[in-house]
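Entry 12.
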Amino acid sequence: GTQDADGRWQPHTEFQETELGRVPLSWEVSPIGKHIELLSGYPFKSSDYLADGQYGLRLLRGDNIAQGWLRWRDAKFWALDGIEGLEKYFMQEGDVVIAMDRTWVSSGLKVSQVKKSDLPCILVQRVSRIRAKATLIQPLLKHMFSNYRFEQYVKGVQTDSVVPHISGKQIQDFLIVVPPKKEQQEIARILSTVDRKLENLFKKPYGDEGQNDSNTP
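Predicted 3D structure (tokens):
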């Protein structure tokens, strides 16, 4: 909605018909590629992977991406003396990552957001790293790529092959609605509150084992 003079949010009163249905007049509908920077990982040779993290940097592969978190059991590593010039592939806290092979599996979308505890790690081919441009705020990205509509989109565009996959262009062609920045921030605040409550519910019966599957060097 819009904020009144007292800072209270009021519902929208003007709307427009779009490809995604009826949305507020001040919201934009466009391909997400207009609002993000997408980077695909580096083609490290699997034959040179290290199994021991004592002398290597953790590799972020598609196998490491679960539904909303990164799993590091049986992690692979790359020798520290072989990463010079690859700085653009270093991950940052808050980065959103999408597995481009088998993006959707029976348990859901292989989409996650990098946490501080996942660092340091480096991006491997067939994984896309997503960062928001100035028109979009980073905290919303995870939700845009984890929702039912993106799941249905992936099912519709992924290749029908032995290893189903999607391309970077297909990710960027996904249509989204983009509210003004102030509304984005309020939406992100509400969603983060919900996320924290869900995480607490998850931890109570199962503990931290599921999401702290770390093989930290």
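Annotation: The radius of gyration is 19 Å. The chain has four helices and 15 strands.
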